[in-house]
């Protein structure tokens, strides 16, 4: 398993509540869902090719 980078994130409490509900709907943790959303945004922006990183 690839090592993950830890970093602090300050986020608006209301946005965090929204992300919590969304993550629950997708059966993910908030952290896992944020990583998923960020990875999708990076792919759409053309910054990460599909074969550069395998999803776990």
TrEMBL record:
Gene3D superfamilies linked: Met repressor-like
Protein's UniProt name: Toxin-antitoxin system HicB family antitoxin
GO biological process, one term: regulation of DNA-templated transcription
Provenance organism: Priestia endophytica
SUPFAM superfamilies attached to this UniProt entry: Ribbon-helix-helix (SSF47598)
Domain of life: Bacteria
